[in-house]
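idk why but the lab printer keeps eating my pages so im just putting this in chat instead. protein + NAI:
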Amino acid sequence: MRDLAGKSAFVTGAASGIGLALARAFAQQGMRVMLADIEGGALAESVEALRREGHAVRGTVCDVADAGSVDRAARESIAAFGKIHLVCNNAGVGGRTRDSGDISLDDWRWVLDVNLMGIVHGVRAFLPHLRAHGEGGHFVNTASMAGFLSGLGFSPYTASKYAAVGVSEGLAGELAPFGIGVTVLCPGWVRTRITDSGRNRPARYGGPEAAGAAAPNPIAEKVAELVRNGLDPEAVADRVVEAVRANRLYVFTHPHMEKNVRD
Ligand code: NAI
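predcted complex ->
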């Protein structure tokens, strides 16, 4: 999608981190943007901040793990902007780092429902609309380097991100004839609130968990340090804007980690 100005975007997980940076970056290109997120307070603050910067944005509270919630957010976005061209299925949660024998089924379901089914729900809700308006469009699905490299104690997250890569690769071939592009975003460590994902765990998966509430875990502490020292989300978003314009399937933001995939 070469021309972005005047078109409209829908971004999930947009109240924080990479999603907020994506919303801002596409708004800076002259797009109208619907910010969707499960965390209502943070969402309202982010929408307000982007409006103060002069951007044409709106917000909708949406749980991407719930197909009905995504369908409703899609209808609201189309009603607000007329047509949606760009869908960023970005919302994601980290889950807890622990021994595989101790990962609860609730944790498995929560991470897969948000990170994988969130993408499925976003594609399902918007694809008929993108095909119908015929102006072309683009899906950006946020995976991770964890979509290529497995790690200790991260099985649900790794499974969800490998699946996100697989879904995106398949979708790219399927949608190319319709003029609809696909990008799968595969960052390494980025400075966001991902290690505090438990703040948004709904009651049906066991409820919220404060960062640091779990028993001390050296891997989790190392991950928190890597995230604190990670890439600026704005730099990640700039790469995504370029990839959408160039219709590039993969965005790797950390070249030294990309090398591990090839080796
Ligand atoms: P973040 O925690 O700062 O932002 C995630 C956003 O998703 C939050 O605003 C949160 O409220 C929202 N969210 C959580 N559950 C949701 C749900 N059920 N429905 C709707 N929104 C929901 O974290 P970050 O890092 O910005 O995460 C964005 C994406 O980037 C995720 O898919 C994550 O897996 C991915 N990623 C992050 C990396 C990092 O180092 N920060 C590295 C690689 C990938």
